[in-house]
Specification:
The protein is built from 13 helices and nine strands. With 318 residues, the protein is an alpha/beta fold.
């Protein structure tokens, strides 16, 4: 399930109300107001509502359920092979959607670092060699919080993390997302060829960039590489940039803590063998993504169509 699809499900009730009343001029205002009201709710309540939403979608949507089941079982991870684990996965997907109003518009949430000292060492090592840093954030836990946390860390180091951004289809939603990402330590570039060129310039100047390593790229921007034993079309951009710049690559993921207690951010500087051929470096990154997922399996977005055919369009990220 993509973020756009998740949001579409989340606002389905609101959309039905608007359609019934036929007050189309107030469509944008109603949805923005709903989003703002939800942003005031406690995180624990949003997660509880999101868990119910996730279970409802799992039960109602056969397409969603079959994809989630197939992808989770493809991994052969014991914690998501049984029904208890699969239901936990569905709940976590709903929580991911429900927390967005708070993360985008509400007051800050509590964030813990698993090992901030190690990340600061990576910053220092990169700076000593005038190198940039590539941050890879898979669809694991709350990648929205992970991005915000890394942006904050970059800002503390006097850096700005540049991330590719694919505009939301709904203008009102795009306004909210753009505003949420205008924060110290983060800037966005288009998810197209021009954005790729900008990220290359950022790395060459010693800056930081953020990418989704498990996002299916457009046709021609990736290679088929195995993920949990099954071929998946995988971006080559991260591997190419790491090879051409010989810079650190850091995997980042964020655990959603129970009871609305906030989040815990994990970082791992990858020991990639960049002298290998491109396909092998891509496979190393996929193995690193698998390793991160194995540490937090019920919070991975298993419903994402990871094994789909790439689209033939001008977008390269999300």
């Amino acid at each position: 399930m993509t973020l756009a699809n998740a949001l579409a499900i989340f606002f389905n009730v609101a959309l039905q109300v608007v359609q019934i009343t036929q007050r189309r001029p107030y469509f944008k205002s109603i949805l923005k107001l709903l989003f703002q009201l939800l942003s005031f709710l406690p995180l624990a309540l949003l997660h509880a509502l999101g868990g119910l939403l996730g279970l409802a979608v799992f039960v109602i949507s056969s397409i969603y359920r079959s994809r989630l089941l197939a992808n989770a079982r493809q991994s052969s991870l014991a914690s998501v092979s049984g029904w208890r684990g699969l239901l936990a996965v569905a709940c976590q997907a709903g929580m991911m959607v429900a927390e967005l109003p708070r993360l985008w518009l509400g007051r800050s949430v509590r964030v813990q670092w698993s090992d901030r000292a190690a990340l600061d060492c990576t910053f220092a090592e990169a700076a000593s060699h005038s190198k940039g840093i590539i941050f890879l954030t898979p669809h694991l836990g709350s990648w929205e919080v992970a991005g915000q946390a890394i942006a904050s860390a970059c800002n503390a180091q006097g850096k700005v993390m540049t991330v590719m951004y694919k505009p939301a289809k709904k203008p009102w939603l795009d306004e909210i997302v753009k505003a949420s990402r205008k924060r110290p330590g983060m800037e966005t570039v288009p998810a197209d060829v021009s954005g790729v060129r900008q990220t290359l310039r950022v790395l060459k100047s010693g800056g930081a960039i953020g990418l989704l390593p498990d996002q299916v790229p457009m046709d021609g921007m990736g290679v088929w590489s195995r993920v949990f034993g099954k071929p998946a079309y995988t971006m080559t951009l991260a591997a190419k940039l790491a090879q051409s710049n010989e810079c650190p690559v850091v995997m980042v993921w964020c655990e959603r803590l129970s009871g609305g207690c906030g989040y815990r951010v994990f970082t791992r500087t990858l020991a990639l063998k960049l002298d290998r051929v491109l396909d092998e470096v891509v496979q190393q990154i996929n193995h690193a993504v698998e390793g991160a997922i194995a540490e937090l399996p019920t919070q991975y977005l298993w419903s994402y169509a990871r094994y789909k055919e790439p689209k033939k369009n001008g977008q390269v990220g999300a």
